[in-house]
Specification:
The chain has 7 helices and no strands. By secondary structure, it is an all-alpha fold.
Amino acid sequence: MTGMSILQPVVALTVWTMVMWFWLYGTRIPAVQAAKLDLEELVTDPTVTLDHKLPPQVQWKAHNYNHLHEAPTVFYAVAITLAIIGLGDGLNAQVAWAYVVLRVIHSIIQSTVNAINLRFGVFALSSFCLMFLVARAALAMF
């Protein structure tokens, strides 16, 4: 079907999000157990957070998992829109793949070394890809 190629990177990014979910809990659960945290205190005292109780390297994965539910939601919407209107092939699909690859690289950076300048550069590049896709959809729709 015409325009459906862009759905492959959509699915790929959702798969990556689930990979990050497993990485997040694969590191967080052992860290919570090792820290012997009072889980009730986490729920009842708003001043007590996992960011204050767990090592930063553990929390980086959680922060990235949350980030995968922010800007990528715009990606999902615009990619599905482009697919529906038959413009999800060719350059749009290629830019969508670039977006996904950059988001995976961003995740790996944030979850391992968390080098802010490098991470921001990759995020900015992915944002430009997203802006391109949004502009293409807007031009087609209006």
